Protein backbone atom coordinates (compact mmCIF):
# COMPACT_ATOMS: atom_id res chain seq x y z
CA UNK A 1 0.00 0.00 0.00
CA UNK A 2 2.38 2.61 -1.29
CA UNK A 3 0.13 5.57 -0.57
CA UNK A 4 0.32 4.81 3.14
CA UNK A 5 4.08 4.54 2.92
CA UNK A 6 4.28 7.94 1.26
CA UNK A 7 2.33 9.64 4.02
CA UNK A 8 4.44 7.89 6.64
CA UNK A 9 7.65 9.12 4.99
CA UNK A 10 6.33 12.66 4.92
CA UNK A 11 5.51 12.58 8.63
CA UNK A 12 8.17 10.26 10.02
CA UNK A 13 9.03 11.06 13.61
CA UNK A 14 5.80 12.87 14.49
CA UNK A 15 4.18 9.99 16.36
CA UNK A 16 2.06 8.67 13.49
CA UNK A 17 0.66 5.33 14.63
CA UNK A 18 -0.12 2.51 12.21
CA UNK A 19 -3.86 3.09 12.63
CA UNK A 20 -3.49 6.80 12.01
CA UNK A 21 -1.23 6.10 9.05
CA UNK A 22 -3.92 3.94 7.50
CA UNK A 23 -6.34 6.84 7.64
CA UNK A 24 -3.78 9.38 6.52
CA UNK A 25 -2.44 7.20 3.74
CA UNK A 26 -5.89 6.89 2.20
CA UNK A 27 -6.17 10.66 2.10
CA UNK A 28 -6.01 11.02 -1.64
CA UNK A 29 -5.66 7.57 -3.13
CA UNK A 30 -9.18 6.96 -1.95
CA UNK A 31 -10.30 10.54 -1.62
CA UNK A 32 -13.67 11.78 -2.63
CA UNK A 33 -13.88 15.44 -3.54
CA UNK A 34 -17.23 16.40 -2.06
CA UNK A 35 -18.28 19.70 -3.54
CA UNK A 36 -20.68 21.76 -1.49
CA UNK A 37 -23.96 22.85 -2.99
CA UNK A 38 -23.91 21.76 -6.63
CA UNK A 39 -22.44 18.93 -8.66
CA UNK A 40 -19.41 20.23 -10.60
CA UNK A 41 -19.24 20.06 -14.37
CA UNK A 42 -17.13 17.19 -15.70
CA UNK A 43 -13.52 18.32 -16.11
CA UNK A 44 -11.00 17.21 -18.72
CA UNK A 45 -8.42 14.91 -17.13
CA UNK A 46 -4.72 15.85 -17.44
CA UNK A 47 -2.92 14.09 -20.29
CA UNK A 48 -0.64 12.15 -17.93
CA UNK A 49 -3.48 10.66 -15.88
CA UNK A 50 -2.70 7.06 -14.95
CA UNK A 51 1.08 7.23 -15.35
CA UNK A 52 2.91 5.37 -12.60
CA UNK A 53 5.23 8.27 -11.67
CA UNK A 54 2.78 11.11 -12.20
CA UNK A 55 3.02 14.12 -9.85
CA UNK A 56 -0.14 16.03 -9.09
CA UNK A 57 -1.26 18.58 -6.55
CA UNK A 58 -4.78 18.66 -5.16
CA UNK A 59 -4.94 22.34 -4.36
CA UNK A 60 -7.01 24.58 -2.15
CA UNK A 61 -9.45 22.09 -0.64
CA UNK A 62 -10.76 21.59 2.87
CA UNK A 63 -8.44 18.76 3.95
CA UNK A 64 -9.75 16.34 6.57
CA UNK A 65 -6.95 13.83 7.16
CA UNK A 66 -8.77 11.97 9.98
CA UNK A 67 -5.42 11.92 11.80
CA UNK A 68 -4.48 14.18 14.74
CA UNK A 69 -0.83 13.76 13.74
CA UNK A 70 -1.45 15.18 10.28
CA UNK A 71 -4.21 17.61 11.18
CA UNK A 72 -7.16 19.13 9.39
CA UNK A 73 -6.97 22.29 7.30
CA UNK A 74 -9.59 24.81 6.23
CA UNK A 75 -7.55 25.33 3.07
CA UNK A 76 -4.61 23.15 2.08
CA UNK A 77 -2.94 21.13 -0.66
CA UNK A 78 -2.06 17.44 -1.07
CA UNK A 79 0.92 16.41 -3.21
CA UNK A 80 0.99 12.93 -4.75
CA UNK A 81 3.85 11.23 -6.58
CA UNK A 82 2.69 8.12 -8.40
CA UNK A 83 0.75 6.28 -5.70
CA UNK A 84 2.48 7.99 -2.77
CA UNK A 85 1.17 10.94 -0.80
CA UNK A 86 4.33 12.90 -0.02
CA UNK A 87 3.03 16.10 1.54
CA UNK A 88 -0.16 17.64 2.89
CA UNK A 89 -0.57 21.16 4.22
CA UNK A 90 -1.04 24.82 3.28
CA UNK A 91 0.78 26.22 0.25
CA UNK A 92 2.62 23.09 -0.86
CA UNK A 93 5.23 24.01 -3.48
CA UNK A 94 5.30 21.73 -6.53
CA UNK A 95 5.75 23.80 -9.71
CA UNK A 96 6.22 20.73 -11.92
CA UNK A 97 3.06 18.93 -10.74
CA UNK A 98 -0.29 18.84 -12.52
CA UNK A 99 -2.90 20.75 -10.52
CA UNK A 100 -6.36 19.53 -9.55
CA UNK A 101 -8.48 22.43 -8.32
CA UNK A 102 -10.17 21.39 -5.06
CA UNK A 103 -11.68 24.77 -4.21
CA UNK A 104 -15.03 24.33 -2.44
CA UNK A 105 -14.27 20.62 -2.04
CA UNK A 106 -13.61 18.39 0.95
CA UNK A 107 -10.54 16.17 0.47
CA UNK A 108 -10.63 13.20 2.84
CA UNK A 109 -9.99 9.44 3.02
CA UNK A 110 -12.28 7.31 0.93
CA UNK A 111 -14.97 5.45 2.89
CA UNK A 112 -14.66 1.65 3.26
CA UNK A 113 -17.89 -0.38 2.99
CA UNK A 114 -17.31 -3.73 4.71
CA UNK A 115 -20.63 -5.36 3.78
CA UNK A 116 -22.70 -4.77 0.66
CA UNK A 117 -24.95 -6.74 -1.71
CA UNK A 118 -24.40 -4.77 -4.90
CA UNK A 119 -26.31 -7.18 -7.13
CA UNK A 120 -29.42 -5.90 -5.33
CA UNK A 121 -28.89 -2.33 -6.54
CA UNK A 122 -31.68 -2.76 -9.10
CA UNK A 123 -34.05 -3.75 -6.27
CA UNK A 124 -33.71 -0.54 -4.26
CA UNK A 125 -36.99 0.21 -2.55
CA UNK A 126 -38.54 -3.12 -3.52
CA UNK A 127 -39.01 -4.14 0.12
CA UNK A 128 -38.59 -0.88 2.00
CA UNK A 129 -40.80 -1.87 4.95
CA UNK A 130 -40.23 -5.62 4.94
CA UNK A 131 -38.73 -7.75 7.68
CA UNK A 132 -35.30 -9.34 7.36
CA UNK A 133 -36.40 -12.87 8.30
CA UNK A 134 -39.69 -14.67 8.85
CA UNK A 135 -39.18 -14.92 12.63
CA UNK A 136 -42.34 -14.08 14.60
CA UNK A 137 -43.90 -12.30 11.63
CA UNK A 138 -47.54 -11.41 11.37
CA UNK A 139 -49.61 -13.36 8.81
CA UNK A 140 -48.89 -12.06 5.31
CA UNK A 141 -45.87 -10.00 6.40
CA UNK A 142 -43.24 -9.84 3.64
CA UNK A 143 -39.60 -10.53 4.46
CA UNK A 144 -36.20 -10.28 2.79
CA UNK A 145 -35.33 -13.96 2.54
CA UNK A 146 -38.60 -14.96 0.91
CA UNK A 147 -39.05 -11.96 -1.40
CA UNK A 148 -35.52 -10.92 -2.40
CA UNK A 149 -33.50 -14.11 -1.99
CA UNK A 150 -36.30 -16.60 -2.64
CA UNK A 151 -38.21 -14.97 -5.52
CA UNK A 152 -36.27 -12.16 -7.21
CA UNK A 153 -32.65 -13.34 -6.95
CA UNK A 154 -33.25 -16.61 -8.88
CA UNK A 155 -34.56 -14.57 -11.83
CA UNK A 156 -31.27 -12.70 -12.35
CA UNK A 157 -29.43 -13.25 -15.62
CA UNK A 158 -25.68 -12.67 -15.79
CA UNK A 159 -26.22 -9.35 -17.60
CA UNK A 160 -28.55 -8.25 -14.78
CA UNK A 161 -25.79 -8.98 -12.29
CA UNK A 162 -23.26 -6.95 -14.27
CA UNK A 163 -25.55 -3.93 -14.62
CA UNK A 164 -26.58 -3.90 -10.95
CA UNK A 165 -23.06 -4.33 -9.58
CA UNK A 166 -21.59 -1.69 -11.89
CA UNK A 167 -24.35 0.79 -11.05
CA UNK A 168 -23.92 0.15 -7.33
CA UNK A 169 -20.15 0.58 -7.58
CA UNK A 170 -20.33 3.85 -9.51
CA UNK A 171 -23.01 5.20 -7.18
CA UNK A 172 -20.79 4.48 -4.19
CA UNK A 173 -17.77 6.07 -5.86
CA UNK A 174 -19.84 9.19 -6.44
CA UNK A 175 -20.55 9.24 -2.69
CA UNK A 176 -16.88 8.81 -1.74
CA UNK A 177 -16.94 5.06 -0.99
CA UNK A 178 -13.74 3.77 -2.59
CA UNK A 179 -13.41 0.26 -1.12
CA UNK A 180 -16.08 -2.44 -0.79
CA UNK A 181 -16.59 -6.02 0.35
CA UNK A 182 -19.31 -7.18 -2.04
CA UNK A 183 -21.13 -10.19 -0.60
CA UNK A 184 -23.22 -11.85 -3.29
CA UNK A 185 -25.89 -14.56 -3.21
CA UNK A 186 -26.49 -14.49 -6.97
CA UNK A 187 -23.75 -16.87 -8.10
CA UNK A 188 -26.09 -19.20 -9.99
CA UNK A 189 -23.58 -20.11 -12.73
CA UNK A 190 -19.94 -19.39 -13.60
CA UNK A 191 -21.26 -16.74 -16.01
CA UNK A 192 -22.98 -14.94 -13.13
CA UNK A 193 -19.74 -15.03 -11.15
CA UNK A 194 -17.69 -13.75 -14.09
CA UNK A 195 -20.15 -10.92 -14.75
CA UNK A 196 -20.03 -9.79 -11.13
CA UNK A 197 -16.23 -9.81 -10.95
CA UNK A 198 -15.99 -8.00 -14.29
CA UNK A 199 -18.31 -5.26 -13.03
CA UNK A 200 -16.15 -4.82 -9.93
CA UNK A 201 -13.06 -4.50 -12.15
CA UNK A 202 -14.71 -2.11 -14.60
CA UNK A 203 -15.74 0.21 -11.77
CA UNK A 204 -12.04 0.81 -11.08
CA UNK A 205 -12.05 0.78 -7.29
CA UNK A 206 -10.80 -1.56 -4.57
CA UNK A 207 -13.15 -4.49 -4.06
CA UNK A 208 -13.29 -7.87 -2.34
CA UNK A 209 -15.64 -10.45 -3.89
CA UNK A 210 -17.42 -12.60 -1.30
CA UNK A 211 -20.21 -15.03 -2.08
CA UNK A 212 -22.97 -17.15 -0.59
CA UNK A 213 -25.27 -19.87 -1.86
CA UNK A 214 -28.25 -17.69 -2.71
CA UNK A 215 -30.57 -20.28 -1.20
CA UNK A 216 -33.35 -19.51 1.24
CA UNK A 217 -31.98 -18.96 4.72
CA UNK A 218 -28.51 -18.21 3.35
CA UNK A 219 -26.92 -20.58 5.84
CA UNK A 220 -23.39 -21.80 5.12
CA UNK A 221 -23.34 -25.62 5.57
CA UNK A 222 -20.89 -27.22 7.94
CA UNK A 223 -18.01 -29.26 6.58
CA UNK A 224 -16.13 -28.88 3.27
CA UNK A 225 -17.52 -26.44 0.72
CA UNK A 226 -19.53 -28.00 -2.14
CA UNK A 227 -17.48 -28.71 -5.24
CA UNK A 228 -19.36 -26.15 -7.34
CA UNK A 229 -18.77 -23.41 -4.77
CA UNK A 230 -15.06 -24.20 -4.66
CA UNK A 231 -14.88 -24.04 -8.45
CA UNK A 232 -16.52 -20.62 -8.50
CA UNK A 233 -14.19 -19.31 -5.81
CA UNK A 234 -11.06 -20.54 -7.61
CA UNK A 235 -12.26 -19.27 -10.96
Automatic annotation (TrEMBL):
Alphabetic keyword roster: Hydrolase
InterPro entries associated with the record: Amidohydro-rel, Metal-dep_hydrolase_composite, Metal_Hydrolase, MTA/SAH_deaminase
Protein name: Amidohydrolase family protein
Gene3D superfamilies: Metal-dependent hydrolases, Urease, subunit C, domain 1
Highest taxon of the lineage: Bacteria
Keyword Chaperone attached: no
Occurrences of domain Amidohydrolase-related (ranges): 106-212
Gene Ontology MF term list: hydrolase activity, acting on carbon-nitrogen (but not peptide) bonds
PANTHER family according to UniProt: AMIDOHYDROLASE-RELATED DOMAIN-CONTAINING PROTEIN, AMINOHYDROLASE SSNA-RELATED
Pfam short name (any one): Amidohydro_1
Keyword flag Hydrolase: yes
Amino acid sequence: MTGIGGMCEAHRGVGLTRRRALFAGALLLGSGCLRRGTVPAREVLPSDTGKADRRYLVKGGVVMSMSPAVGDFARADVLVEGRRIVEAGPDVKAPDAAVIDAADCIVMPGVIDTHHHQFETALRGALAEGLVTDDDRAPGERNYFEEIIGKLTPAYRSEDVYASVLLGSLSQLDAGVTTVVDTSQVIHTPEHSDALVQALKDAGRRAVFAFGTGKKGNRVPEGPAPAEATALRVR
